[in-house]
């Protein structure tokens, strides 16, 4: 029997029943990677010897009667997480020999839960792209079409899942880095509420793995089913034991509803600054129809929805000012000269990004204050609705584009070119206020490419969009393996 595309829940049941061993699951996963990953290039740092040893240890533990949530389940880890003895480079050539001495807190939690780590998955340079390619490890291809991107920055993890390389993976999300690859590859991902899962050890080299509270960025689970997302989130969630973990334990509230017919959902498929492509709009409509058929209350408009144009601009300001602080672009004098050349009335997202590159602390504090107003607006909306359904990006996976200057790249939306980074507006809708968002498959484009949508939920009520994702999976189907 082939196990590679079984869910983590199914594998756990089979392990408990004695139908298979973890060693057998691990050997099968490794054989599949060795056979198929030459074309996909998802696993950039294999760790097969230690995986086989961990699998044998898991089988012994099960024989002793141990019960752990991921005992014996093969998984992968995004390259950006520290794993003792393996390189963590973030795709940056100058750090190709950077080998951390200890595991990231989330890798430790995976191992404590009994997971068998097969290796690390590919990322873009500095995690700064919507594709996954770098000089060290090369390009990760979309399993559905090798001429297209798998997404970024957790593109290697999404491609690995779609290819059957392990049942689960962990990634991170600052600009849709969990949700976009899931949408492009036809799998599931969950961006948790900001601060829900500890991030220590998911840090760009050569910085020390300190227990800092990040702005915008989160770590989260990826899987081939919604239920597996919840299983993995329960392993990942909780404060860092070095900081908040000394004072409290986490207990997420249950989902607001258990039945699809009890959900109140706002469906949004249009953005004032970027058009939504027809294939993605069809995916949103498919989900909306399933909600209506299931008895949910569905609305297409609400006065409570925060201003989308202002939200996109605010997100770009916070995103770019933080990114440039970590990864400087050009000299300050050059950037200020470019900003000074902008027209005063230029309110494009390109202009917002450029101005954010020279933000002062005062500018950032002002933006952070406006973010609090948006958060309050979302609280009011979620008193009326339980979730918001909207696109992840305007298009399915696009062809590889390795133009060195990302500002010169264009994204094709139904035959019309748009600035490359404008496609981030939908990812920013949840990221800017720190809301949880679950990416779910929603069918295929006319070309046969996966199309997903995201389900945005109330802050620290992560089980609500996850439960809705599980119910929708029953209605419209979920993951489907790529041909071949």
UniProtKB/TrEMBL annotation:
InterPro entries to which the protein is assigned, alphabetical = Amidase_CS, Amidase_dom, AS_sf, FAAH2
GO MF annotations in UniProt:
amidase activity
What PANTHER family does the entry give? FATTY-ACID AMIDE HYDROLASE (PTHR43372), FATTY-ACID AMIDE HYDROLASE 2 (PTHR43372:SF4)
Cite a GO CC annotation: endomembrane system
Query: Per its UniProt record, what Gene3D superfamilies does this chain match?
Result: Amidase signature (AS) domain (3.90.1300.10)
Its recorded name reads Amidase
Protein species of origin: Saccharothrix tamanrassetensis
Q: Where do transmembrane segments lie in this chain?
A: none
Q: What is the lineage of its organism?
A: Bacteria, Bacillati, Actinomycetota, Actinomycetes, Pseudonocardiales
Give the Enzyme Commission number.
Answer: 3.5.1.4
- Which keywords does this Swiss-Prot/TrEMBL entry list? Hydrolase
């Amino acid at each position: 029997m082939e196990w590679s595309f079984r869910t983590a829940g199914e594998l756990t049941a089979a392990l408990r029943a004695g139908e298979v061993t973890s060693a057998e699951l691990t050997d099968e996963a490794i054989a599949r990677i060795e056979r198929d990953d030459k074309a996909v290039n998802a696993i950039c740092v294999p760790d097969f010897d230690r995986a086989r040893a961990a699998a044998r240890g898991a089988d012994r533990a099960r024989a002793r009667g141990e019960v752990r949530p991921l005992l014996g389940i093969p998984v992968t880890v995004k390259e950006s997480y520290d794993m003792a003895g393996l390189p963590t480079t973030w795709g940056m050539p100058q750090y190709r020999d950077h080998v951390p001495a200890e595991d990231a807190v989330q890798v430790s939690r995976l191992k404590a839960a009994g997971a068998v780590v097969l290796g690390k998955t590919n990322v873009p340079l500095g995690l700064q792209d919507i594709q996954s390619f770098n000089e060290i490890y090369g390009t990760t291809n979309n399993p559905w079409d090798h001429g297209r991107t798998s997404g970024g920055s957790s593109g290697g993890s999404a491609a690995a899942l779609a290819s059957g390389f392990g049942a689960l993976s962990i990634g991170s999300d600052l600009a849709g880095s969990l949700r976009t690859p899931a949408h492009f590859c036809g799998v599931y991902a969950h961006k948790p509420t900001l601060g829900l899962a500890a991030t220590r050890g998911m840090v760009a080299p050569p910085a020390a793995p300190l227990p800092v509270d990040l702005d915008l960025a989160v770590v989260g689970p990826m899987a081939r089913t919604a239920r597996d997302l919840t299983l993995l989130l329960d392993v990942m969630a909780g404060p860092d034991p070095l900081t908040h973990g000394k004072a409290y334990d986490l207990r997420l509230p249950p989902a607001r509803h258990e039945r699809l017919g009890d959900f109140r959902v706002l469906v949004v498929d249009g953005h004032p600054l970027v058009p939504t492509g027809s294939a993605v709009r069809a995916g949103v409509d498919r989900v909306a129809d399933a909600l209506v058929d299931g008895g949910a209350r569905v609305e297409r408009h609400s006065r409570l929805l925060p201003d989308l144009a202002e939200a996109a601009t605010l997100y770009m300001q916070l995103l770019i000012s933080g990114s440039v602080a970590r990864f400087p672009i050009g000299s300050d004098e050059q950037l200020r000269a470019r900003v000074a050349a902008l027209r005063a009335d230029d309110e494009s997202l390109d202009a917002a990004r450029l101005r954010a590159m020279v933000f002062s602390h005062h500018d950032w504090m002002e933006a952070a204050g406006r973010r609090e107003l948006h958060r309050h607006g979302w609280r009011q909306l979620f008193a009326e609705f339980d979730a918001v359904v909207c696109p992840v990006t305007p298009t399915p996976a696009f062809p590889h584009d390795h133009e060195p200057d990302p500002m010169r790249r264009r994204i094709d939306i139904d035959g019309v070119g748009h600035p490359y980074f404008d496609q981030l507006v939908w990812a920013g809708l949840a990221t800017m206020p720190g809301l949880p968002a679950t990416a779910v498959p929603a069918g295929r484009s006319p070309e046969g490419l996966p199309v997903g949508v995201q389900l945005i939920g109330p802050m620290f009520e992560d089980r609500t969009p996850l439960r809705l994702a599980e119910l929708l999976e029953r209605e419209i189907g979920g993951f489907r393996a790529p041909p071949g």
